[in-house]
Design brief:
Largest sheet: 5 strands, mixed
Number of strands: 10
Strand order of the largest sheet: 5-7-8-9-10
Strand content: 15-25%
Order of helices and strands: HEEHEHEHEEHEHEEE
Radius of gyration: 17 Å
Shape: elongated
Structural class: alpha+beta
Length: 185
């Protein structure tokens, strides 16, 4: 039921997905929401969800024209705001060569976009969202990696702590009853 009724998504995303599912004029323009277009191994669910943040709810479209049309639909119906990822315009992102040379360091799980499964036609989307993020097992190893690479890339630990390229660290406890969109399946 949670999945069928798009529980956990923002109301504007839910409304748009409902309209697309009901076969309205928006149906052919919505490819899907980021969370539904990938399969994440359980070991990486928390890390990937933290790496994506609100982007887990972005809606993928074929092109900019479909995104423009959907934005107009949202405005007309006062459904709120949604971020769209047109496949034709998203730009792939990659880790720095400095970080790439250190991927063999202790605790490195890999580049986030390479740790998930998705249809290759969405390659640009997932490299845009996760291609410049490294997943590392714990905070100690993440800090060591960050120092060794000059804080050149975003790092997320398996527990969901984040080190940004600006050098900020984000972490702490998570709500136990927090519904993880990626773990619903």
């Amino acid at each position: 039921d949670m999945k069928e009724y798009n529980e956990g998504f923002a109301i504007s995303v839910r409304r748009l997905l409902e309209q697309a599912h009901e076969g309205s004029s928006v149906g052919g323009k919505v490819i899907g929401v980021v969370a539904s277009l990938m399969r994440v191994p359980q070991k990486y669910e928390v890390a990937i969800e933290m790496a994506l943040g609100a982007s887990v709810q972005n809606i993928v479209t074929k092109n900019e024209d479909d995104a423009k049309s959907l934005i107009e639909y949202l405005k007309t119906n006062k459904f709120g705001r949604v971020t769209f990822l047109p496949i034709t315009s998203v730009k792939e992102r990659y880790i720095s060569s400095q970080a790439e040379n250190k991927l063999g360091m202790r605790g490195v799980c890999g580049i986030a976009s390479e740790l998930i499964d998705y249809d290759s036609k969405y390659d640009k989307v997932f490299k845009s969202l996760l291609g410049s993020t490294i997943i590392i097992d714990n905070m100690d190893n993440a800090v060591e990696f960050s120092r060794a690479t000059g804080y050149s890339t975003k790092i997320v630990t398996l527990e969901g702590d984040v080190i940004s390229p600006q050098g900020t660290l984000t972490g702490g406890s998570r709500k136990e009853n927090n519904t993880n969109i990626l773990s619903r399946d």
